Amino acid sequence: MKHLFALLFLLGSIPANAQWTAQTSGTTNDLNDVYFVDTQHGWAVGGFGVIRYTSNGGATWSSQTSNTTYSLNSVWFANPQEGWAVGDNGNVTHTSNGGATWALQTTNTVNKLRAVYFINQDTGFCGGQGGMMLRTYNGGNTWSQIGTALAEDIYALHFNGSTGYLCGRNGNFQKTINLGSNWTYMAPPSNLDTLKGVFFTSTTAGYVVSHSGEVLRTDGNGNWTNTQPGTPKSLNAVWFSNPSNGWVVGDSGRIYMTNDAGMSWNLQTANTAQKINGVHFPNDSAGWCVANFGAIRKLALITVDVNETEENPFALRAFPNPSNDQNINLSFTLQNNENVSVEIFDATGRLIQTLNDPFNAGRKGFDQTISNITLPESGIYIVRITQGDLVSQVRLIRN
Questions:
Q1: 10 Å Cβ neighbour count for 29?
Q2: What is the model's pTM?
């Protein structure tokens, strides 16, 4: 097909019950964190020093040697080659070749490290047990301990340039404006216990998730709003792919998604009851979460190839569209005598129906109608018709 471009449907169009699909990690060890540098290349880390790697979007996962048997709790890549994973007993392991080899770095601590964050391939931070905070300016060749305002366990880190945030046990939430040289404690609401994840989409919009199942929005200056999604289960991590669209994950397979900057949260289907420990979206098109017992789940948004020079070669149309019930009709005109396929996708990119050559091909100029295309539930769908090198699609909406 000539002159193709990808049409990406925004996350705001995903139905609340969008499903995450299972991938085979190749391990039964708990997986604690995941990081993708693009939609193809990603790493998951976990118990007993396990590192799993994929180069094909998670279709297959393989093992990489971390050089530690201690649990790895957090992973971060500054670019496709330079990455770090941190864990128990003060372990930091580093790769400079995309994970082909990993080597331990010297930290001079045996404290459990739970979080790692790199601003670039040189400047990074890791934090953990007892408020331990380490900083490097040379990619981890040397790590130096820096002080924080509270000596409480650190669970997560996030930086926007020189401004950074940490969160942890007993409502520990702190801010720095000078790359960690000084930290200021900013007390969240007093009823909070352990804070498990933090993510800032701008200098004034941040999100923190808690062990008691709350999501709080903060401007980073001491002002807080509770946007609890309605779960008593611990929420363990948070990630936003853009200022509007974000996910929080937690115990018992809980995944909640927002498409309105945290004003509301919708439960999604994870197809696992395991504790979900980490979530990451490299961009708006796909994301992964990892859980106990080696569970990995992927959420992909639909990306459809569209003919740019012939916008609608079949004169494809749908009616009624939008529809108030599950049935929509299609009409179009065949362009040649080749076989025809009709595919129907939901907004997550999941193929829900295929009609292979429903008309026994036909002749050029022959008009066709498909009655009662069934849309199983409210949401946005795509119908794509292919005949040889020709492709047309139409967006369907069921209210």
A1: 20
A2: 0.76
pLDDT digits (tens, 9 = 90+) for 112-149: 999 999 999 999 999 999 999 999 999 999 999 999 99
Task: Give me the sign of the Cα torsion angle 374, 376, 380, 383.
Answer: negative
Cα 271 to chain centroid, rounded = 16
From CA 49, how far away is CA 93, in angstroms rounded?
10
Within-domain flag for 8: no
Helix boundaries (H) for 143-293: none
**Would you place residue 372 in the very low, low, confident or very high pLDDT band (cuts 50, 70, 90)?**
low
Do both 170 and 277 map to the same domain? yes
| Same domain assignment for residues 337 and 254 | no
Contact 111, 123 (CB under 8 A): no
Note down the domain range covering 374.
303-398
203: number of Cβ within 10 Å:
12
**Residues 279, 237 contacting (CB under 8 angstroms):** yes
Classify residue 2: in a domain, yes or no: no
8 Å CB contact between 195 and 188: yes
